[in-house]
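Ticket #4471: structure output looks truncated?

Reporter: J.K.
Steps to reproduce: submitted the chain below (203 residues) through the standard prediction queue, then opened the result file.
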Amino acid sequence: MSSDIQYTRMELLRLKNRLILARKGYSLLKRKLDVLISHLFELIKKFKEKQAEVDRLIKNSKNIAKVVSEEYTYAELEAIAKYNAIDYSMDISYRNVMGVRIPKITLNRNDRAPYYPFLKSVSLGALVMQNRELINILIDLTEITASLKYILKEIKKTKRRVNSLQYVIIPKIERDIELIRQKLEEMERENFVKLKSLKKDEI
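Returned output as attached by the reporter:
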C-alpha cells in the first residue's frame, strides 16, 4: 500500500479528475501518433518515387552525355555550359503537421530555353533539360528527407509519452483510486461499528 496517498474524499476526487485528464491526453496523443505514422508512410512512398526518378534521369543523362561527348569537344561543352548557366535562389518555408514544422523548399530560377553558340544538337538540348529536371527532383528529395527526419523524431517523442501514459501514469492513478476507495470503505465500516457500539452502551 502506498504511503504517500492521502485517504480522503478530496484526494479521491482529485485523482478521478486527474484520471479523466490523463485519458484525454492519451487519446489525443494516440490520435497524433496515428496521423504522424500515416504521414510517415506517405513520405516514404514519395521518397521511393522521387529516388526512382533520380536514378532514371541520371541513367538517361549518362547515355545522352556519351552521345554529346562525340558531337562536341570539351572546350565547346565548357562554353555551352557557361552560356546555359542560370541564376537561382532557394526559399525555405514551413508548414505544420500535428505540431511538427515540416520544411518546404522552393527553387527560384530563370528557366530560359537552352542556348547553343555552335551547331544546335537535339541530344545536347535533351541533356540540358534533363539536368534541369534532375535539379528539381533533387530539391524535392532533400525536402522529403528533412521531413522524414523531423517526423521520425516527433514519432519517437510522442510514442514515449503515449507509452508512459498507457503503462505507467494511468495504471498508477487507477491503483491509487482503488486503494483510496477500499480504505474509505474500511473506515466507513469501522465508523459504523463504533457508532453501533456507542448506541448499545447508551442503552
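Triage note (M.O.): checked the attachment and the full C-alpha cell line is present. The mean pLDDT is 87.
Status: closed, working as intended.
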